[in-house]
Amino acid sequence: MENVMPRVYTARTSQTFSCILSILAALALGYVLYQDTFAIWWWVWTGTGNFYAHAVFVPFFVGVMIWRMKDRLLAAPWKHAWSGSILIAVAMVMMLIARDSEIKIIQSVSFVLTMFGVVMLLCGGKRTKLMLFPLFFVLTMIPIVPDQIINIIAFPIQLLSTRAAVMLLNLLQLHAVRHGTEITTDNYQMAVEGACSGFRTLLSLLTFSAAFAYLVKAELWKKWALFLSSAPLSLIVNSLRITFIGVVGELISKQAAATFHDYSGFLVLILAFLFLFNFARVLKCEDLLGIPLQDPPLLLPSAKVDAGPPPSLLEDIQGGLKVFGGWCKTAIAWRPDPLVLSRILPYILVIDGLFGTAWAMQGRVFKKAPPEFPIATTQVPFTMNVDSTTFKAEETPSTPIFDKLPKNIQDQLKPTRLINRDYKGSDGSLVNFFMTAGNARWTFHDPHNCSLGSDAVLNDVGILTIPTKKGPVKVLESRFQKNGTKEQYEMMYFYVVDGVQLQTTQEIHKSLLFQTILGTSNHPSYFLRFDQRVAGTDEEKRQQLIKFITATWESISPVILNKAHAIAEPPPAPLESEH
Question: How is the chain split into domains, by residue range?
């Protein structure tokens, strides 16, 4: 008997060590498989003008949700679910296809399936069911919807937030004027860009309020009331944020406004938490993570027990910190149960096997050709001729440097190639040629939204077919008009995706949807816009623009339609970088 216990202890220690090594191997293989996905997420979370700034807080919320239900999880019967391994296998196939085809959304969906599969395999069906909300909550940190689709929803909110901020600034007697999405006061001017549209605030507050409502102990309708309150709250808070930036810029300095802008996101979260906390008190919710939301009932005068004075705010905070400290001590003191580890070891090895197989197969299946370069700036002629008319690119006040854009605009479009030139024609015309090229999911934009942002309206006339020596070109003819003026300008534009000409944003959105699901081809996509710099929509102005489109298409269509090779060239540098 003296030698039995040491042997049992040694066996359990060996099993524990083996299980820990297997878990570490699974984590390492999982990171290697999804490191590109994680890098994309991080770039989206931290990039300029992103809509997922809240994502870094989501793992904390998920951890708190699961920790809160630990007693219910431990009480639930444990039985492994082999269906989890099937989910993991499907996710690995999706990951291999998506990684080799560079389909970012499928990579993200694959990670979600892997997460569900691992939880089902290790925890069983009943425990997974208890954790459904925290697991689905992870989706709030994953950039699944393309920015172009988000912008369709975000732009109206952007305009509404701008109008509300102007109204508040005028109430403060700061004489604010709105031009599209730009706000001008006597000494300060700011542009309410997509990142400040209010949609990012809406996404962040929807995420925050969903976590808050889930963690609050209350009736179901009260939880829904807390969650739905985030929609009007986001508009109010974002309008206040823009207003405060304008106040700081007007009364202090432009630099102070920029600093306040960078840190004002924390102000949004603080205001949102204060509102939700007090709204929960108004709704008479019971507690938040063990912290009471209601004052203790007052005793009747006839009661013999002296309850003492009601707790102060400081005592409430101290009580909350005490509860939080108790959680931390429990978490630090927690140790894995060797018996539990020995029971899950076979399933950890299954995960290692599936991950290892996928790692060995990556790059060897579903291989796709590398993406082709878009047309180079040197392949777009600076001088073009059609019939007896010559067009020559020249620097003008609108394009002081060829093929450049301000940094804030370029950060939104993210083009792989950019053409921005004014061409003067021998017929007296002045035409701007603007083109972006690259991945259609990032490069394309809607000119109607851009014109609204410039305090103007773009009215579509209809689709026009222009015959050329290189085949017909179908363009969408539109009229551009600044608000408050009577002058109109002729504009024509179209898109090219996989060699197919598209004229409407509806067609582009459909194309984006297919590319999001099926991935892009190795061919670059293009947006081409031609607009008259001279006011007027008479037939002479139209024919001048049509001539220029004809000359341009005959010069560049072989490369645009993938009939000729493009020249390798680095991505464009923004205009700001050279000044």
Answer: 14-144+335-361, 147-292, 377-578
